[in-house]
Amino acid sequence: FNGGIRLVGMYKAGMHVRQVRGDFPEYRNFILPSEACRHVMSLFKDTVSAQIRATENSFTMQSDRAWYRSKLVEGEFMPYRKIIEMDRPNSATVDPVELLASIKRACAIRDDGKGHRLKCVVSDGSIHISMRNMDGEESADECRVEIDGDDGDFSLFPPRLISALETLECGTIRISYLDRTRAVVFSPINSDVENFRVLQPMIDHGR
């Protein structure tokens, strides 16, 4: 896009859209293999600036310390904006630092077992967060929010939720939701930089 690069990462549990400022004068839409993304993250983790070049079938990234080239994936990327702009009439506005602290307190009993879910209930001006571990122990915490629309509840995978909050880098976020089966969107408020995290809920089919 004009004035930078928009990165869109897709994975099984959701999607991350991140706008990065830079000088990229020519519009180009390309898809990197997942393995190439991991190499780029590793090689350029502490890099302040780098040069990116994309041709019809290759991608090159170079800094003063590292250089990397990869082939591109053929095909068209999915229309990710339709997912972000899907109607979600309900939202909660919250300080991400306070919410992250509540989540980490609720996760204090987390063990190494798989399948943990963090249940989030939005109602009465707060988001109530709870977890149950493999031994049947439960913990909970809550954080004040401003609700616009109806109350709601959804369950999310803790590491994905914590990662989403840690990477939004803003003072206030909006959590947009519809029901417990639809993706939940986390986005910054009053920011000129696009930075969305879309998380798929963990559905309890027994409910």
Secondary structure blueprint with pairings:
Elements: E1 4-11, E2 14-21, H1 34-43, E3 51-54, E4 58-62, E5 67-71, H2 80-84, E6 90-94, H3 96-106, E7 118-123, E8 126-132, E9 138-144, E10 146-148, E11 152-156, H4 158-168, E12 173-177, E13 184-188, E14 195-199
Antiparallel strand pairs: 1-2, 2-14, 3-4, 4-5, 6-10, 6-12, 7-8, 7-11, 8-9, 12-13, 13-14
Helix pairs in contact: 3-4
The dominant shape is elongated
Rg for CA atoms: 19 Å
Total strands: the figure is 14
Helix/strand order: EEHEEEHEHEEEEEHEEE
Class computed from helices, strands and strand pairing: alpha+beta
Round the mean pLDDT to the nearest integer and report it: 83
Strand content: 35-45%
The major β-sheet equals: 7 strands, antiparallel
Number of H/I helices: 4
**Secondary structure: helix percent:** 10-25%
**Sheet with most strands: strand arrangement:** 1-2-14-13-12-6-10
First-to-last CA distance:
43 Å
Runs with pLDDT <50, length 5+? Answer: none
